[in-house]
Amino acid sequence: MTRLVLFLGTLLLAVSVNANETRDIFKGKLFPPNVVLEYREELGLTKEQFTAIRSAVVAVQAEVAEHEWDMQEAYSRVMKMLDDRPLDEAVVTREVTAVLQAENRVKLAQMTMLVRIRNLLTDEQVAFLEANWSRETN
Predict the structure, then answer these.
(1) How far out from the chain centre does Cα 96 lie?
(2) Under a CB-based contact definition with an 8 Å cutoff, are residues 137 and 34 in contact?
(3) Spatial distance between the Cα atoms of 84 and 48, rounded to a whole number of angstroms
(4) What is the pTM of this model?
(5) Assuming Cys at both sites, which of 24, 30, 31, 38 could form a disulfide with 114, CB separation 3.0 to 4.6 Å?
(6) For 6-65, what is each residue's pLDDT tens digit?
(7) What percent of the chain has pLDDT over 70?
(8) Cα separation, 122 vs 119, whole angstroms
(9) Do the beta carbons of residue 8 and residue 78 sit within 8 Å?
(10) Which of 35, 38, 9, 8 is nearest to 20 (CA)?
(11) What count of other Cβ atoms lies within 10 Å of the Cβ of residue 110?
């Protein structure tokens, strides 16, 4: 029981941490849209690239919003269950699994967008961002 409460506390803390951490876990190999747009002029982004990046961002925002609603609903159910005595371990575990699955769908959508943006850039643009942006983040 104590382990379950500790696990849930850790899980809820992890879920509450914003996905927009400033740490670059991909070591400057993938670039968030705001960074690409910050260097838009230096990169010489074409109108087609800009439009495709904007479309990728809009698509992921819609998808992420849906999953964040799912995550919040599952989180609320878990919090309500934690008031029960005794805790139903199987039910709590099922709901925690729903939170984790929603979180993973958000991360996957964000990762897919980053890969899509990287694929829209030329080799020269990628090299520029690796040389300039990654130096600022590390």
Answers:
(1) 18
(2) no
(3) 55
(4) 0.72
(5) 30
(6) 444 544 444 444 444 456 677 778 999 999 999 999 999 999 999 999 999 999 998 888
(7) 79
(8) 8
(9) yes
(10) 35
(11) 17
Long-range pairs, 40-47, Cβ under 8 A, ≥24:
42/128, 42/132, 43/121, 43/125, 43/128, 43/129, 44/125, 45/125
What is the sign of the dihedral through the CA atoms of 42, 31, 20 and 27?
negative
Q: In 3D, which of 41, 61, 30 has the Cα closest to residue 126?
A: 30
Q: How many residues does the chain have?
A: 138
DSSP-assigned states of every residue in 69-132: HHHHHHHHHHHHHTTSSS--HHHHHHHHHHHHHHHHHHHHHHHHHHHHHHHHS-HHHHHHHHHH
Are the C-beta atoms of 64 and 20 separated by less than 8 Å?
A: no
